[in-house]
């Protein structure tokens, strides 16, 4: 059942740390979005900075972590966001 009420963030927030699986330094910025936008991940470390929607149809694997993929672009461990 879909929720009738939507919420967004009051402002942006950035988190920095070490990747759980690769040990690389990573950063994540959460930003407010317009109504109906949904959750989207943007890979700012890749050319063209592609977006991947947080959609069940984008789930590629769930072994040890949830991976979303669109073509060759992937976002890992999204269940922790």
Descriptive account of the structure:
- With 81 residues, this protein is mainly beta.
- The chain has one domain: lpxc deacetylase, domain 1 (Ribosomal Protein S5, domain 2, 2-Layer Sandwich).
- Helix content is 0%, strand content 36%.
- It is built from no helices and seven strands.
- The strands form three sheets. It has a three-stranded antiparallel sheet with strand order 5-6-7, with no helix packed on it. The protein has a two-stranded antiparallel ribbon with strand order 1-2. Strands 3-4 form a two-stranded antiparallel ribbon.
- β5 and β6 form a beta hairpin.
- The radius of gyration is 14 Å and the shape is globular.
CATH architecture: 2-Layer Sandwich
Straight-line N-to-C gap? 22 Å
Q: What is the fourth-level CATH superfamily?
A: lpxc deacetylase, domain 1
CATH level-1 class:
Alpha Beta
Structure, briefly:
This protein is an all-beta fold and 81 residues long. It has no helices and seven strands.
Keywords:
81 residues; mainly beta; Ribosomal Protein S5, domain 2; three-stranded antiparallel β-sheet; two-stranded antiparallel ribbon; 7 strands; globular
Task: Give the topology.
Elements: E1 13-18, E2 25-30, E3 40-42, E4 51-53, E5 59-61, E6 67-70, E7 73-76
Antiparallel strand pairs: 1-2, 3-4, 5-6, 6-7
């Amino acid at each position: 059942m879909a929720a009738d009420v939507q919420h967004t963030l009051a402002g942006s927030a950035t988190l920095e740390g070490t990747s759980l699986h690769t040990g690389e330094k990573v950063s994540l910025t959460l930003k407010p979005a317009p109504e109906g936008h949904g959750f989207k991940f943007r890979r700012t470390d890749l050319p063209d900075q592609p977006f991947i929607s947080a959609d069940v149809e984008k789930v590629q694997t769930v072994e040890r972590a949830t991976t979303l993929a669109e073509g060759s672009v992937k976002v890992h461990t999204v269940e922790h966001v």
